[in-house]
Amino acid sequence: MNFESEILLIERILNEHYGDLKWWPARTIDEVLIGAILTQNTSWTNVEKAMENLRIGKVSDLNNISKSDISTLSQLIRPSGFYNQKSRRLLKIAIKISTEFGNLKSLKKKGLPFCEKYLSEFEGIGKETLDSILLYALVFPKFVIDKYTLRFFERLGIWSRSMGNSMLEMIPEILENNVLRLKNFHATIVEISKNYCRAKPICPECLMNKNCDYYREIMFP
C-alpha cells in the first residue's frame, strides 16, 4: 500500500471512530491564534483557563490586546505558564497585525504564501504554531506536523524521521486541500495519541493496532 492509500485508510478509520471533533475550540479566529501561542509547553486545560480570563477582561481579540498593558496581560494568561514570555509575544503580534492590517480577516486576504512568510517572522511562531494558525484560524489547506502526528505515523510504519517532512507535506493534496478534512484528520490523530498512542502507548486497546508496525513488533518480536 502506498503512502496516499495509507493516509486515506487512516483517515477513514479515525473518522469512523471519532466522527467530527469540531476542533479548534474557539469563539473567534483571534482566539485560535491566541490559543496557538498559549498552548505552547502547557495543557489545553490551562489554555482554557487563560482564555476565560481574557474574555472576562475583554481582551480576547488582537485589537484589544494591542491596547493592553503588559502587566495586565501577563496576569490574565498566568494559568498558561511562561506568562511573561507569552504576554510579550502576544502583545507584539497583536500590535503589528492590528496596525498593519486591522484584523486577521484582512491579513488572510493576502493569501497563503504571504501569510505563511509574514507570521513565521514573529518570535514565538515556530512551524507547528504557524501551521495551526494557518489551518485553524485562517482556514488555509495546511497539515499540522507536531509531536503527535510524527509519533503516530512513525509507529504505524508509514513514515520515519530519516525521510524528513516532505512526504507529510503531501497530506493536504491527498485530502484534496479540503480544510474540514485536514482539521479533523489532525484533531483525530491528536485524540488517539492522547488516549492510546502516548509516550508509553496503550497498544492492545488502540483501534489502529492491526495497522501498526510498532504493535506487531512488541507482540511478535
Automatic annotation (TrEMBL):
Pfam families reported in the protein's UniProt record: HhH-GPD
Molecular-function GO terms, alphabetical: 4 iron, 4 sulfur cluster binding; endonuclease activity; metal ion binding
Keywords per UniProt: 4Fe-4S, Endonuclease, Hydrolase, Iron, Iron-sulfur, Metal-binding, Nuclease
GO BP: any one term: base-excision repair
Keyword Translocase in record: no
HhH-GPD domain ranges (all copies): 38-195
Protein name: Endonuclease III
The organism of origin for this protein: mine drainage metagenome
